[in-house]
Amino acid sequence: MHRFFKITRQSQNSRARLGEITTPHGVIQTPVFMPVGTQGTVKAMRPDELAQMGAEIILGNTYHLYLRPGHELIKKQGGLHKFMNWPGPILTDSGGYQVFSLGKDPEDRQGARSDANLNSTRTTKLARITEEGVYFQSHIDGQEHLMTPELSIEIQRALGADILMVFDDCTPYPATLGETRKSMERSLKWEERSLVEFRGGDSGNKNLFAIVQGGMYPELRKECFERLMEMGKFSGFAMGGLSVGEPINQMYELADYTGSLIPNDYPRYLMGVGMPADLVTCVDYGIDLFDCVIPTRNARNGMLFTVDGFIYIKQAQFAEDERPIDPSCVCYTCRNYSRAYLRHLHLAKELLSSVLSTLHNLHYYLNLIRDMRTAIVADRYPEFKKEFLERISS
Amino acid sequence: MHRFFKITRQSQNSRARLGEITTPHGVIQTPVFMPVGTQGTVKAMRPDELAQMGAEIILGNTYHLYLRPGHELIKKQGGLHKFMNWPGPILTDSGGYQVFSLGKDPEDRQGARSDANLNSTRTTKLARITEEGVYFQSHIDGQEHLMTPELSIEIQRALGADILMVFDDCTPYPATLGETRKSMERSLKWEERSLVEFRGGDSGNKNLFAIVQGGMYPELRKECFERLMEMGKFSGFAMGGLSVGEPINQMYELADYTGSLIPNDYPRYLMGVGMPADLVTCVDYGIDLFDCVIPTRNARNGMLFTVDGFIYIKQAQFAEDERPIDPSCVCYTCRNYSRAYLRHLHLAKELLSSVLSTLHNLHYYLNLIRDMRTAIVADRYPEFKKEFLERISS
Questions:
Q1: Which of A69, B223, B307, B334 is the most exposed place for a label (fewest CB within 10 A)?
Q2: pLDDT tens digit string along A7-20?
């Protein structure tokens, strides 16, 4: 039914599964973690470094590339793959999130739009939401732009994305049931317009994912999913509006529940999540795709992942520590550098600090995904998950 | 006589020559360009990237590494080579220049100490010079330190440098004959103390270079060189106090003249120079070693070298330019990226901009050195120089 996605192995004692997604730029294995390449580059990484450490697909940001250097320019340059020299698959977000979170760290996916209200036309600090779309000011030059579902799809098509995302309305947190429903209804209208635009234009053999909204309300998540399913032509389903400030257990419950709504033969994508424990936990719910800036952004801030958690490399205890970040890690950084050296680079604000730290953290995430796949093959995912969560909290 | 240095080919129609310098960490070919690794890293470069593009020796900064992370720490970590994962030779400067240029860009070698006067004890903004040495304030935490010839050698030894430099007094520009002589006399005393310290301690099979000072006065350059030669135990001679703000032709004349003083069987090192045309010109004077931050610092500022000069990548004319920086260049950057993409990265202040631009500029310098060596082998250095200078000025 969905040649795009094929389950290659289903755990017997968990909802975790292995799958394959076939895109115009190659086949990817799931579960998968997508490094974030906001501005046409995964920060500090050469594409060949990404490929060497096993990255299979990366995420590009529609909002940022639309504003700079512009999607038309990238299209003329042969598309985003050629422009940034990444030959593998690319998923683009829709810009729906970013148009609300302007003026913040472009990589910050937390706590956006806390000043929003949910009247039919509501205003955030820099964005104004109407039925037509979102008026927003560029964070670069202050110019006003209007982002619509149609424009978002046009941009993603110009970029040449392999997987496109619908344009949706990001429900703020916290929000009442009534506010959340209003936001969800808008999302459903915009998602349908995204689908119409996607099917009306020349989208080749690209694929469009829907986004299930509904905030913190399971009944709205269910209704939203069912109405999206009725639209009938999506290649996969994402879960939006999670990891926006709610308690972690509530996030897990909603990911678990929403994941259970989506039939097995569709890929499930949990957007913007998360920490290693989140990935390990949510793969158990049958979730297949993840993206997050944590490994890259936190690398630049000196938070480095280890087999039993993470360390802050700036701490004085590492000043003369000759060990690598993680003695069990085989990444380029751990094979060649001590904590003492990495601490020095971090304190000296050297560019190589970002390079070596990002290399390590992304390798950690991609290796964690490989470990999860191995556990699924061995039909011991629940044991793997238990051991992992115990180890990092010990 | 000097097993350390061997001339392997002498041009018949120029003073340009090929040589070999044997160090504890390998043999290097001269003429050679040394990328600058100020804080224990050539900015934005992995050491394997440097090796791949043909870097044979790098320069480390005594001043910076003394202040952070400290030479004792690096020594305990096994020395600078191991600490920074660079297996090849390292030359360290003495810190003599940096103690006067604090509070400026650590890579800025231009225009230091213009506020200096040359009384027996003179004071710059952050440094106070006495016969004993230089009192200076750390640019990191404001603490006062005293740098002496003895301490400089001790630091360089702790770092494990293959080639050490004497601690000298950097003559400001401009300076009168009397001021320059006073500064030169101080340099000679400090260089002799450096030599005593070097020979008194355990310096293994390391080598110490003297620095010929004398400002803009050929007669002082001559006297300085002769008195250094009488000290008798240096492995090579550097020219200091050039490219400090004087007209370029004056720099050339002094490099030419000072180079002619140094016997053929010693390596000649022109410190802190320079632009590509400077290297091509000064190799013709029989100069063998160069270091400069221009390729790395200017890369980060978007100045990229090409076969006929350079471009500023931020210019609007490159917005949709699909060509590489230089169509004749075979570096990783030019094989994979367009000017349009590099301009985008530069404007977006992406880390990868520094990585790709530094890769290209260093490759350009190292390739230029290879071209010079080829011309020397073919006994056509004068023609090579003429063609090069005509091409970049056209």
A1: B307
A2: 999 999 999 999 99
A291 catalytically annotated: yes
Which chain A residues have a beta carbon less than 8 Å from that of B337?
85
Q: A85: which chain B residues are within 8 Å (Cβ-Cβ)?
A: 336-337, 341
Q: CA-to-CA distance for A268 and A247, rounded, in angstroms?
A: 22
Low-confidence residues of chain B: pLDDT under 70: 1-2, 102-126
- Asked if the A5-292 domain carries CATH number 1.10.600.10, the reply is no
Distance CA A165, CA A152 (A): 9
What does the domain layout of chain B look like in residue ranges?
A: 5-292, 300-393
ipTM: 0.94
Q: Is the pLDDT of residue A125 over 80?
A: no
> In whole angstroms, what is the distance from residue A117 CA to residue A123 CA?
7
Phi-psi region of B207 (alpha: psi -120 to 50; beta: other; left: phi over 0): beta
What confidence score (pLDDT) does residue A99 get?
A: 85
Shortest Cα–Cα distance, A69 to chain B (Å): 6
Query: Which residues of A83-121 form beta strands (DSSP E)?
Result: 90-92
Instruction: Spell out the residues 6+ positions from residue B290 whose beta carbon is closer than 8 angstroms to its own.
Output: B31, B32, B33, B34, B269, B270, B273, B274, B279, B282
Query: Which residues of chain B does A347 touch, with a Cβ-Cβ cutoff of 8 Å?
Result: 68-69
Answer yes or no: A93 catalytic: yes
* CA angle (B67 as vertex; B66, B68 as ends), nearest 5: 95
Q: DSSP letters along B90-129, please?
A: EEE--STTGGGSTTS-TT--SSTTTT---SSSEE-SSEEE
- Give the separation between CA B159 and CA A15, rounded to whole angstroms: 56
